[in-house]
Please model this.
Amino acid sequence: MSFPALFRRRAIWIPTIWGWLLALAIVAGALLSVGRCIHPFLALDEPVDAPLLVIEGWMAPEELDQAMVRFRNGNYRQVITTGGPVPVNHFFQNPVSYAELARDYLVRRGLKADVVTAVPAPESAQDRTFLSAVMVREQLKRSGQTVAAMNVYSSGVHSRRTRAVYQMAFGPDVRVGILAARPTAYDPEAWWTTSVGAKTVVMEAISWVWTMLFFHPPARDTHEEKWGRVSGVMSAK
Model:
């Protein structure tokens, strides 16, 4: 009685030591190329001609100083600072927002008080950049302003995602440009050499991909757009 064969012999090709070295060199070269390209890709700087500059207020003072330079070099007539509540601690025991702190800082550094408006966002654990964009849109509507173009000033590798969610909030009728601050906590040309640089770039890359694939803003002027999160939608800070 014969039984069907369960195994059979087959010859396969495997790399030699030189083949493995070549493969490793190719992979290393690809990773190096991605590493050099990912930061300028995420740290998008594409302004448009606009009278309004929106500045994300949670940035470091050195980055806000850079924002002032960009304001003075542009043809802006108005600045809006954004940001949600600052966590209460032994430094900030009274409720205050990043939007208000940034406005005060810019005014102390020389911007005219009547040019800068703070537009705080409510407390939120997710979708904070999108929520700030919605607050800016509603503030402009309340003040009777209609803008056809605006620039948003963001921090380094956060800028590409910032422009994306602002464009979602304002829609196709408003051109949204973006300005990116140069990071001060790490060298953008060698971000992988420090833990803060690696963490910042890698997390922003993941978040940008997630936002592009899965973040779908709620319908305009609904409760969910300002206060809630649609089931299954991830953060778009």
Residues 126 and 235 are 5 Å apart (CA to CA). The first strand starts at residue 52 and ends at 56. The chain has one domain: 40-226. The beta strands are 52-56, 78-83, 116-120, 149-155, 175-181.
